Amino acid sequence: MLRSYFDKNLIEAGCDEAGRGCLAGPVYASSVILPKNYKNKWLNDSKKLSDKDRYELRPEIEDQAICWALGIVDHKEIDEINILNASFLAMHRAIDKLKTKPELLLIDGNRFKAYKKIPHQCIIKGDGKFLSIAAASILAKTYRDDHMQAMAEKYPEYNWDKNMGYPTKKHRDAIRKHGVTPIHRLTFQLLPKQLTLEL
User: pTM above the 0.85 mark?
Assistant: First the structure.
């Protein structure tokens, strides 16, 4: 069972992102504030859950959370500021939208750019340790997947309905055959170094 809180006396927001390692599309982040007494034995790191489980948990999280929000940084901004800064910015945008102001931010991972004057705690593999971070991971993942499913209809050759923009063999084969789309991240290594790509 994941932990309900880091500090029982503070309003905590769990934060996580999805899509950092993708070759195309935006990075999504979510921030979630859960009640201190919230319990859910099924809630876990989104990567450890099936697609079906994630989508079943999403309305439960949205209904039970004190508040939650999404932040999005698109492929153009990612190319301009790099993916690490884009991940931080997406989390900042999610925190900006929270209707309740958190007193502590629980960040999945080992690095974060401080948000205003709110203290933060970086937790490696935090989405497998704290309910609020796990909830944020599920919302970020499912809403980004929704977006990539829509993009897959527009660009069916790239198999995004299955790979969500990650660098699978089918995705890279499609880049090799069809070139890049308007939503590919051009600063990323789209093909292995031994292969050249004409942009």
Answer: yes
